[in-house]
Fold these 4 entries.
Entry 1:
Amino acid sequence: MSLTDPLPITPFTRPVRGEVTLPGSKSLTNRALLLAALGDRPVTLTGALFSEDTQLMAASLRSLGFTVEADPAALTLRVSGQERGFTVGQADLLVGLAGTAARFLTALCAAAPRGTYRLDGVPQMRKRPMKGLIEALRHLGADIRCPGAEGFFPLEIHARGLQGGTVSLDASESSQLLSALLMVAPLAAGPVEVNLTGNVRRTYVGMTLQLMAEFGLKMPAQAAPGRFSLIPARYAVPDSYAIEPDASAASYFLALPLVTGGTLALPGWRPPGAGLQGDSAFADVLVRARQRPVGTLLDEDFHEISDTFLTLAAIAPLLAGPTRITGIAHTRKQETDRVAGMARELRRLGQEVTEEEDSLVITPRPLKSGIEIETYHDHRFAMSFGILGCHDLHGTGRPWLAIRNPGCCAKTFPDFFELLESLRQKSLPA
């Protein structure tokens, strides 16, 4: 279905009801694709995400010689032909704006026994942090060249495998730098020790370590806080692996009843502590938002669940007092500068916003209508403000907010707006 650009959001005039089947986790799908490629037998991923980011990852694995069979109707991805991996000699890998694919494929190609691999993405990908991972892999013996700016895409990797050793890594700008290194470290010729030198989002690192264990890595990877020790090993991969529903995507539909009233079921969604994804803790944030006394400050640290901060920020104009969001400085180097972009769009909507390097304070003011939200090619802007647009600002069901470039949701949630509209239709009186 093609979407109007800009896309007017039709508000809900009745409380939301029904249920939403969430897409599979992007973080888990791309990690599982990488780990499946490192195994020695076919692996079927069930409940997988089919989106731009995962398709780029799968296409790159195919370019490297692996077989990846996709069945979108069944939501399955089957990885096989691991013995043919890296037999192509050379490959050009295009990762778009997919940070997981960029970091994971860089590490995978650096650990390959042979071949020349060129990796590139869209212009914004060339600005995203890669330096820490590149330097750590070079310290382990990788030959990685930067034809453009040092430490950034594009890259040219002349693979010759990894040696053992001790490396330091600052993953404060993206936990994916550490996750990528950890997943390929068992392929090195000798033991690898990774020492962290900066802050890292530990929920995502914990997800990676748990997934490595579920894909058969026998040795524990974490030796002590901030230090990870890995020895050469093969992944004893399972025949199949079930991908959890995406906890970041769940944040939009957890927030929707707060905007429209009503209730919404999310079959398969795992509440905080029940699954591998730290972003499920957003549900607890919403509980605190509902329970706080009117007029008091809601103060939330989003460092560990920063993919969901835009969801709270976008609906903050509807909350019963000011909202302070901290722990988000690293999101300035994601798909766009998310902190500055969110402050800019909320001000255009008439809100009072104080922006600092690591935080936003949003004080509700009367919402302005007729605003077209700029999404900066960032799916999370589109989806977050799409939820705000479901608020019936004028009490007439008339659209008052529109989303520019709604198609950017294809990155992780291609049918987001179709699903949102179907919920609105189901909530109308029979």
Entry 2:
Amino acid sequence: MQNGKIMVAENQDVYVLKFMGDVRLTLCSTIDSLLKRIFGGELKSVVVDLTETDGIDSTALGLLAKIAVNAKGVLNHKPTIISTRTDITHILETMGFEHYFEICREPVELGCCMQEAPILDECAESVRQKVIDAHRILMGLNPKNKAEFEPVVFALENCPAVGVEDSVTRH
């Protein structure tokens, strides 16, 4: 699997995020920073393109869920996820994302100039807190997620920050 990266474009308050490769908790600071930028000003729409996503872990899924939670009070429509890979779409459906996003299963030509988001590196404690927060958001989507991720959150809250990557469930 290709290491993950995040591409981003913005045009007239419409944001497009493209997750590429293997998107894991190592990108959580980058994604979180982009979300602060997106929801820090005017916003008309958010589109997340997962057509080139090879894999995605629960932390990245939690940050995607954060988009839906933040968009609720800002947009009068659901954000959109483009997912043409059946394995990735299955993960989204399993997590209940279809209730919070419009999921487009066909490729869409976005026609925007994408730039790679710089990979941000933060201290282990900051990353640990972002991982916990992402999993709490996932837990809030539905009872099944709560049952699945509550032990993960408990373990992360009760372990030292060192080795946080090893404590996270991978999907």
Entry 3:
Amino acid sequence: MAQDARSRWRITANSPVVLTFVAACFAATLAGQLTGGAATFLAFSTYRSPLLNPLTYLRLFTHVLGHSGWGHLFGNMVYILLLGPLLEEKYGSRTLLETIATTAVVTGLINMALFPRQALCGASGVCFAFILLSSLTSFREGEIPLTFVLVALLFLGQEIVQGMFAIDNVSNLSHIVGGVIGASLGFGRAGASPRL
């Protein structure tokens, strides 16, 4: 009897958008590592470039796939794999894909406008969109979850302090923008039933 119960366990692809996104991030990072960063700069980073260059528009979407190294990738993928499946189950695959695409384009455009000489890559903005969106999963009309208020305060406070005092290659602005997008989509989708 115990043998039969164990044989029924199987691994399932429970979250197609999240799993595809993670696989694409891994492939983009691997390509970057194998080319000494050339692939990351060419296809998986966003920066100000001529508007007549078709890659300028492609990179607005693909910069969230590229990462500067394995540590950068793994740090982001832990959050994506932890929060993404729960969000995909609640809001549906289309909404999660829209969240990723919106975050990519908005953070890319802001980076191009405000930091013309700085390249941006990585899924950090998407991570923070997921963090804020997940804190709104129990949102009901007329109510704001205390967990959302606390996450937003801690998150915004940390990012503002780090943005003002830390000297590193972390784009705190893309974290904040990602969080705002996640919160906005959470409020906009409040009470919406999951859809595919």
Entry 4:
Amino acid sequence: MSRAANPAQEALRRVIMARYPITQVVTFEEDRVEANLRHLTQNSMKRAGFWTWACTTGLVGPEGPVKDTRDPERALDVVAGQPAGVFLFRDLHAFFGQPAVVRKVRDVRLALTNTPRFLFLTAPRVTVPLDLRRDVAVMDFPMPTATELGHLLDRYVAGFEPPPDDDTRLSLVTALRGLTVAEASNAMNMAFYGKKRVDDEAMTTLHAQKAQLARKDGVLEFVAQKWQLDDIGGLEVLKQWFVKRRTLFEDEEADRRGLAPRGVLVMGIPGCGKSMCIKAAAALWGLPLFRLEMAQVFSGVYGTPEETFDHALKMMEAVAPAILWIDEIENAISADAEGADAGTKGRIFATFLTWMQEKPAQVFVGATANRIDLLPAELLRKGRFDQVFFIDLPDESERAAIFDVHLRHRKVDLTDINVVTLAKATKNWNGAEIENAVVAAMIEAYDADREVTEDDIFFQVGKVVPLAVTMAEQIKAIKSWAGQRAIRAS
């Protein structure tokens, strides 16, 4: 038998070489399983025929449909009577509630053992009943590789003028990773319909396909990318950390060498841009960003918190490469959890620890925290998060940059506004307070039907008592804790 040409064929080939008589293939891609099995049968098993079965069509072999085989028991009888062959049954698990079908599967397993006959069952999830667990092997069908998706993409963009350059093509393929062939085709139909070139909207459309997958499960929220690293004032150390890792998700060689970043934990003073950094990283890396809503996890609406959390992690694996954003992680996984939630949080924490250690490299975790001292030490060790960053209150130059970002973002003419003077007047302010002062000044100016002035902003500054004053003791404690335990983001 010749070596398979791709990971999907290789996985199926190994099952056949191992002589498993019955295997359940866990996948949504029935057609892709069929295509690969048919290819293997025709090219590597010359004396075997390829057969398919569904309750709507019955058994279909090399000579065409077999009469009266819509009934699964009758179809399995035909399988047992063939001298050789590869048989693909779709949705047989729907009949596992019938004792006679379960018994027939066990009988067929005995008949197929040590023969050139192999029965494959497709299902979207593991559905092997207890009575068959020792008789049926289970395999996860590999998702399409970057190479396969690249070939598919090339067919869609053939004839584009100008053709996508290597960087653009790599970014598009990365955006398609985690989608089935059918989903990728649908996404590209939407992204490129009526177009003859790749534009900025195409990437957004491809990410929207992944957003649809997450939206069906409720607890994962797709976050649109509207912030860039240049929209963040200061924090140069953290920004450079993201920039250096920009291409590692797109490079398969880096992935094989284990160089892809696993996650980052950003802690610091409230309102200083922790969440914005995660959003900007997603835009920089060209990856979809999903926020895990822990309140929804604990609500019980989608099942027990443990089941919901585990399902959300599996969904992230399905849409990878992607970024999982967990905001204020200390509220979800706390070392000081008490009362009724203590056991639940403990179990979720144990699940999260194991997943962070074993998760696919293509899922990056961006977590933020205000009180990192509440997090268990096990979560902070290397191997789970690549780095822990501390964001302090912005210094004068950073405050000037923040004023500049928010004013320019709102199309304010800076000719008569001195951001350095404003920065000097807002010592110990955080970024959120600066933004609020700018917005409040603009509202007042808008109400007076005129452009905002520097005096308008100074007037708003004088009305604010910053968080650094109202929460001085807590902020001092946060700085003290982070001083020896985290890398400064600035």
